[in-house]
Design brief:
- This protein is α+β, with helices and mostly antiparallel strands.
- The protein has one domain (about 10-130): Gamma-glutamyl cyclotransferase-like (Hypothetical upf0131 protein ytfp), CATH 3.10.490.
- It is about 20% helix and about 30% strand.
- The protein has three helices and eight strands.
- The protein has helices spanning about 25, 75-85, 125-130, and strands spanning about 10, 35-40, 40-45, 50-55, 60-65, 90-95, 105-110, 115.
- β3 (about 40-45) and β4 (about 50-55) form a beta hairpin.
- Pfam families: GGACT.
- InterPro entries: AIG2-like_dom (IPR009288), GGCT-like (IPR013024), GGCT-like_sf (IPR036568).
């Protein structure tokens, strides 16, 4: 994997976002709550209470860009690789470029589940629609 220019940035689009179930895994490694951004790709509902993205340039994935603490970049990426299933092959860490022009790390779907496309590319909007019924 080719590292983005320092400071290392991470694009999160699902359960790693502030207030979601895996935020606590990312929170200790970032300098703030990030900034809204988007990346070219497609977002899917896995049916397992978390999303999956494919960064292939065909649509848009909404998320946030986080600056990783410089002294914790290696530790953060190793920890998140484990949390996100990159070690097991469920996801893979890739470099992509956001709409704001940031080169970022992001976790891309690795395969094995039946996926349902998420219209609009926003996990939070999708969850809100599901909650409304």
């Amino acid at each position: 994997m080719t590292a983005p220019a320092e400071p290392a940035l991470l694009f999160a689009y699902g359960t790693l976002l502030p207030g979601d179930v895996r935020w606590h895994h990312l929170e200790r490694f970032v300098v703030d709550h990030g900034a809204d951004d988007r990346a070219h790709g497609r977002l899917f509902d896995t049916g397992c209470d978390y999303p999956a993205a494919v960064f292939d340039g065909t649509d848009v994935v909404h998320g946030r860009v986080f600056t990783l603490r410089a002294e914790l970049v290696d530790e953060a990426l190793a920890w998140l690789d484990d949390v996100e299933g990159a070690v097991a092959g469920d996801y893979r860490r890739v470099v992509t470029t956001t709409a704001a022009g940031h080169r970022v790390w992001a976790y891309e779907y690795g395969g094995g589940l039946t996926l349902e496309p998420i219209a609009g590319g926003s996990w939070r909007d999708h969850c809100a629609r599901l909650a409304r019924g």
